[in-house]
Amino acid sequence: GMLDLRDIYPLIDGVESDPAPTEGKILPKEGLFIALLQSKMYKVATELLTMGPRWFFGANKDNYVVRELLSTCKGLIEGLYSHYYSDHTLDGAVAGKESQLLGFFNFDLLEHFKSYGIGLIRAGRHYFHQDLVLLTKLTRVLKHFADTQTNEAGDCVAVLVLEVLLPSMSYTSPNPSLCYEIWQVLDKLGHEERFRLYSAFRDQDMCESQKTVAERAERKLQLMVDRLDAKNLKREARSMAQMAHAHPLIVAEKIVRFSTAADRQAEKVVDLLVRLVQYFTPLGVDALLYVLLLNIS
C-alpha cells in the first residue's frame, strides 16, 4: 500500500502476457492482478490493466486469471441485475411506485460499476462465453442502461457490446436465445450506432483464439455454400441461420458474396437472398442489411 503502481509495474514489465500462454502458467503481472482482485483493490487492478500492451489471458476454461476476473465481475453484475430485474422492482414499476423502491437499491453498486466495473468487464472480453448465465445477465443490465438513453450510458453500452457481447457470442454454440438478448440491446442504439459497431468489430485486432474461431466458422460456412443446390437450399439455409446466431457478420458477408455472383441475374439474386435469410433472427437480418449497404456504397 506504500508503493505507487507506477513504481511496481517496471519491475514486472519484462515479461508480457503471451497470446497463447502455457496452461497453468501465471505471469508476474497476472499474479499481481489476481492478488489485487483477491484483496478487493479493484480500482488498482483496473489501473494495472491499462498499463502496457493489451492483455490477452489464456483462453482455456481452467485459466486461474480468467476465473478470478469473472468471479469479481459476477458479484457486480448480479448485484445490478437483481435490482433491475427483481420482483419488487418489476411489481413497483407496474404499480407506478418505482420511486418508492429506490431506497432498496445500493447506489454504491452503480458507482462501483462506473469506477472500476466497466474496466474489469472489458478485460473479460470473450471469456464471458464460459458463463452463459452471467453473460445473459450482463446483457440485460446493458439493456436497462440503454433504455435510460443518456450519453454516458450509451457510450458504456456501445463499448461493452463491441468488446464483450459480440466477441463472447462468437464463441458460443448456436444459441438463438442469446442472440435475441443481444439484439434487444443493439436495437436500443439505433441503426447508425449499430452499423458503426459492426464496422469496428470487423476491423478490431483479434487474439489467436478469436482468429481460430472465425476461421473455423468461415470453413464450415464455405462447406455449406459448396453444397448449395435447388434440392437442399432449405436445409442449408437453416444451417446458415444457426451459424448466424454466433457469427452474424461472417454469415451475412458470405451470403451476399454468393448471392451477388457476377453470373446471376438481378431477380435471381433477390430470390436467393430471401430464401437464404428467411430463418434469420433480427440480429442476422440487421447484419445482412449492413453488409448489403457496405457493398453498394
Quick tags:
Tho2; elongated; mainly alpha; THO complex subunit 2 N-terminal domain-containing protein; single chain; 297 residues; 2 domains
Written overview of the protein:
InterPro entries: Tho2, THOC2_N. It comes from Eutreptiella gymnastica. Pfam families: THOC2_N (PF16134). This is THO complex subunit 2 N-terminal domain-containing protein. With 297 residues, the protein is mostly helical. The protein folds into two domains: 199 residues, no CATH class; 89 residues, no CATH class. It contains 15 helices and no strands. α4 crosses α7 and α6 crosses α8. It is elongated and about 60 Å long. The protein starts with a helix and ends with a helix.
Which segments are poorly predicted (pLDDT under 50) over 5 or more consecutive residues? 14-22, 88-105
The string of secondary-structure elements, in order, is HHHHHHHHHHHHHHH
Helix fraction by DSSP (H/I, runs of at least 4): 55-70%
Class by alpha and beta content: mainly alpha
Domain THO complex subunit 2 N-terminal: 127-238
Pfam families: THOC2_N (PF16134)
GO biological process, one term: mRNA processing
GO molecular function: mRNA binding
